[in-house]
Write a structure and sequence with these properties.
It contains 11 helices and 9 strands. Strands 1, 2, 3, 4, 5, 6, 7, 8 and 9 form a 9-stranded mixed beta sheet that branches. β1, α5 and β2 form a beta-alpha-beta unit. The N and C termini lie far apart (59 Å). It folds into 2 domains: 71 residues, no CATH class; 213 residues, Spore Coat Polysaccharide Biosynthesis Protein SpsA, Chain A (Alpha-Beta Complex). By secondary structure, the protein is an alpha/beta fold. α1 packs across α4 and α2 crosses α4. It is globular. It binds 2-acetamido-2-deoxy-beta-D-glucopyranose (3 copies). The site of one 2-acetamido-2-deoxy-beta-D-glucopyranose has 3 residues, from α4. Keywords: Membrane, Transmembrane, Transmembrane helix.
């Protein structure tokens, strides 16, 4: 461990710090912002008996590096103190290993384990406990390109301060959004040309969004004149919908009867389709079914759906038919909210971001990929179910996936 400190500033420090510093740099460097909030107030400088020159050095600086120095010293001091104290007992103290901790964290005392986090923005100063004046209970995400700026502005304004706003930018243009007041409290994730399920899989891990009762994962081309998010959530709670979407304005080209808005009710959970389309009135597309353009998940439903999203399938075709695997009974917990409805404007967006190949227009390549994914997903799901039943020694039923 004779390497120089990672920060190249260790010459004035005692030797014994260096190995430890390497470890700390690697592990804690990433999390410095977080640790700063927790550790700084609890480290009592006088109690640790720092040489006064170090104290003033630390206080003179205001970068993250000094926090690290402080941590290093706190650690050394606590460590040598403990060693001195526990010479005779060290053999008797068992190592911590808690099997009920989250996988991989068994060596931590359970009291320090924080297995879920949130997307709440914090301050860099002040009391950590006073950072959050409001803790939104709902999350709404839009996958956006700058061309839909006005539309997204209108949509976001339908969501109160009880919502965390998250934008997934597929065109790399994020600064233009700053003209909107709400943009400052929004979370912006910018990755070139990905789809909303790609973003959702990577940035909406169930443990990260665990604070939200409901998660809206929406497209950018939805008209929201007749939509109120708080009212929507009231209806979803009232009718016990774990997976839902607002009714769609019937005048526009619709594919499914199920998602069409009904004028005479709050929600609906079943529909009639064209003859022969539904083998079972409780199965898609007659029930247990919503589309993926404006889906709303409960916390529990999302935890399941997140696990079903495949890393290489990004358009999500076929996912809508499989959502029902995540709730039981699906025909009661999946439904369409008619009283708060939207218009699907169907503007071309990511569909046009494909690549022209073999003389085919970009959108054709995207469409082809969508279909291919659907086939792959169907096969994987059917195979996985079959394998499960065989492993259990049960004759597999004929595939139930659509
Ligand atoms: C360390 O141990 C020595 C001898 O056992 C003792 O005199 C001293 O007070 C101890 N120091 C601390 C910090 O406990
Ligand atoms: C936000 O949530 C609180 C608590 O549920 C509620 O009282 C308040 O009306 C909500 N805000 C809006 C704008 O609906
Ligand atoms: C299941 O599939 C087999 C072969 O495809 C068919 O013979 C059988 O009738 C099916 N069973 C049911 C219950 O649909």
């Amino acid at each position: 461990m004779a390497k120089p400190g990672i920060l190249g500033r260790s010459s004035s420090m005692p030797r014994s710090n260096e190995g430890m510093r390497l470890v700390f740099s690697a592990v804690i460097g990433i999390m410095l912002g977080y640790l700063f909030g927790i550790s700084f107030p609890t480290v009592n400088i006088t109690k640790l008996h720092f040489p006064s020159s170090i104290v003033s050095y630390i206080e003179d600086r205001n970068s993250g590096i000094t926090t690290q120095t402080l941590l290093n010293h706190a650690w050394t001091s606590a460590n040598s103190h403990k060693k001195n104290n526990s010479d005779s007992k060290s053999d008797e103290i068992p190592k911590i290993y808690v099997t009920s901790n989250p996988k991989g964290a068994e060596r931590l005392p359970p009291g320090i384990v924080v297995s879920e986090t949130d997307l709440y923005l914090r301050r860099l100063w002040g009391e950590p406990s006073e950072d959050l004046t409001i803790q939104p209970k709902y999350l709404v995400t839009f996958t956006v390109g700058i061309a839909q700026k006005a539309n997204i502005d209108a949509a976001v304004k339908k969501f109160s301060e009880n919502f965390t706003i998250m934008l997934f930018h597929y065109d790399g243009r994020t600064t233009e959004w700053d003209e909107f007041e709400w943009s400052k409290r929004a979370i912006h994730v910018s990755v070139s040309k990905q789809t909303k399920w790609w973003y959702a899989k990577r940035f909406l891990h169930p443990d990260v969004v665990a604070r939200y009762d409901y998660i809206f994962i929406w497209d950018e081309d939805l008209g929201v004149q007749h939509f109120n998010a708080e009212e929507y959530i009231k209806l979803v709670r009232k009718h016990g919908l774990e997976i839902s979407q607002p009714g769609l304005e019937p005048d526009r080209g619709l594919t499914w009867q199920m998602t069409k808005r009904r004028g005479d009710r709050e929600v609906h959970k079943v529909t009639e389709e064209r003859p022969g389309w539904c083998s079972d009135p409780h199965l898609p597309p007659c029930a247990a079914f919503v589309e993926i353009m404006a889906t709303v998940f409960s916390r529990d439903a999302w935890r399941c759906v997140w696990h079903m999203i495949q890393n290489d399938l990004i358009h999500g075709w076929g996912l809508d038919f499989a959502l029902r695997k995540c709730v039981e009974p699906a025909h009661e917990k999946i439904g369409v909210v008619d009283a708060q409805w939207i218009v699907h404007q169907g503007v071309p967006s990511l569909g046009n971001q494909g690549k022209s190949e073999n003389g085919r227009a970009p959108w054709e390549g995207v469409r082809g990929r969508c279909r291919k994914e659907w086939g792959i997903f169907q096969a994987r799901l059917a195979d996985a179910e079959k394998k499960y039943y065989l492993d259990q020694g049960i004759t597999p039923p004929n595939s139930t996936s659509v």
